[in-house]
Amino acid sequence: MHYDTRANDHGLSHDPFKALVSPRPIGWISTISEQGIRNLAPYSFFNAVSDRPPMVMFSSAGRKDSLKNIEATSEFVCSFASNALCEAMNMSSAPVQPGVDEFQLAGLTPAASVHVKPPRVAESPAALECRLWKIDPLPTPPGKSGPAYWLVFGEVIGVYIDDRYLTDGRFDVAAAEPLARLGYMDYAVVNRQSLFSLNRPRVSEKGDTATLVPGPWDGVYR
Fold first, then answer.
1. pLDDT tens digit string along 6-30?
2. Percent of the chain topping pLDDT 70
3. Which residues pair with 159 in a beta bridge?
4. Is the CB of residue 55 less than 8 Å from the CB of residue 153?
5. Which residues have a Cβ under 8 Å from the Cβ of 155 and sit 6 or more positions away?
6. What is the DSSP letter of 118?
7. pTM for the whole thing?
8. pLDDT of residue 220
C-alpha cells in the first residue's frame, strides 16, 4: 500500500506513522512553574541529537504545561523511564488540570537536581539536567490557525546515574531496562534477552573496502 500523508488516506483503522518510526525512547520531562508547582509528563517524540555538546529534544503536541514552564524558566530534567516505573510513567501522562503535581499523582519521589530547579524522579536509574537552547514551532498543518507541535531543544548540563547501574565503567542499560514507545498504545522494553552489540566495519587503508568483525563489540569506536 501507499498513502498520501497530507490526505491521510491510508484506509486503516489507525494511523500507522508512529508504528513505523519505532522504537522511540521516552522523554520523561519534569519542570517547575514560576510559582514553584512541579510538573512531570512523558513524551514519545524524544531523542538525543548530539553528544558534543550533549543535547536532547522533545516535541510537545500543543502548549502543554511542560512547554509553558520551560518557556518561563529555561530549565527541565529528563528522567530515565524504566520498566520498573512503567505504571508510574503512564499515570504521569494523565491530562489533569494545570497545578496538579504529577509526582504525587504517580506516587513518585522528587529528588533535588544539582544545576537546575526542576527535580528528577528519585526512583529513576538516571536523569539529565537540561538548560533550554531554543524552542521552534513546527509547520502549521493545513486548515489550522497555528502550530500543532513545538520542538524543545535542551543542552544537558548535568547527569545523574544511580551507582547500582554502573558496571565496569559503563551504564548497564540491560539492568536499567529502558522503556520504548512504539505505535498505537504499544511499548517495548530493552533487557538482557533483547540487547546485543555489533562492531562497526573496519575500513582498509585505501578506504575502498571494509570488513566486519564478528562477535560482540570490542570496545573500539570506529
1. 888 999 999 999 999 999 999 999 9
2. 100
3. 128
4. yes
5. 53, 54, 55, 130, 131, 133
6. S
7. 0.94
8. 86
